[in-house]
Amino acid sequence: MKRTALVFIAILLTVGVAWTAYGEEALPPPKRLTTKHMMADLKHAYTMLLQHHPHFKENDINMKSDWIDSYNYYLQLIKQASDEEQFKQVIQIMLNDLRDGDTRLLAKDEYDNYYDHCENVQQATYKDELEKMSAKRRYAHQPTNGSDQQHMHRNHHQESDMHSDESDLHMFTLPNSGYVLRIPN
Q1: 127 — phi, psi (to 5°)?
Q2: Cβ(86)–Cβ(33) under 8 Å?
Q3: At what angle do helices 108-120 and 133-140 cross, to 10 degrees?
Q4: How confident is the model at residue 166 (pLDDT cuts 50, 70, 90)?
Q5: CA-to-CA distance for 163 and 15, rounded, in angstroms?
Q6: 3-class SS at 75?
């Protein structure tokens, strides 16, 4: 019994050291998105936008009503999506309907910049979202540039965002895909 416990502890230490030594490269790739996963992430993104996006805080009843009515349209598009690329296109359509270039899914380099910023700043309100395992897995295996960037708009104001008041920003990790949704306050 004692020997089994020692072997188990040795295995745990080895795995822990390997995990630390290899960092994000050792993370497995993100899971394959099923229609159910995509629908859940759509609902999460939709809900977070409704609760936190400045357009809806302004009590514009018409916009809020249009947004609520459009959910079924986005849901139908998600049900027709056959892969992750189509999922991102549907999310992008939804974000484009807000007519706000500051609300977006983070691209790999933007995620990395925010993550590094959180490491250097003691009070990072969105650090918990960036450190979720699904986000780490997503961005560890995502290319830095290429076709991915056409669906994840990167605003030219990103650099100033790093130094602005963190209360001006919300970030939410989509639980299944691991993409991080950035919403201005």
Answers
A1: -60, -40
A2: no
A3: 130
A4: low
A5: 37
A6: helix
CA distance 169 to 10: 43
User: Any idea of the CA torsion for 162, 120, 122, 24, to the nearest 10 degrees?
Assistant: 100
The whole-angstrom distance between residue 100's C-alpha and the CA centroid of its chain comes to 18
Residue 152 DSSP class: S
Task: Choose between 53 and 150: higher pLDDT.
Answer: 53
As a whole number of angstroms, the distance between CA 174 and CA 179 comes to 5
Residue 84, CB half-sphere, CA atoms under 13 Å: how many?
Answer: 12
CA contacts within 13 A on the Cβ side of 17: 6
The predicted pLDDT at position 157 comes to: 44
CA-to-CA separations, 88 to 34, 65, 137, 152, 179, in angstroms, rounded: 13, 24, 17, 8, 9
pTM of the model as a whole: 0.74
User: Where do runs of H (alpha helix) occur along 23-60?
Assistant: 35-52, 54-57
Sheet containing 104-105, strands listed edge to edge, beginning at the edge strand earlier in sequence? 104-105, 180-184, 169-173
Residue 122 confidence class, pLDDT cut points 50, 70, 90: low
CA-closest candidate to residue 176, choices 36, 52, 22: 36
Mean pLDDT of 119-139: 82
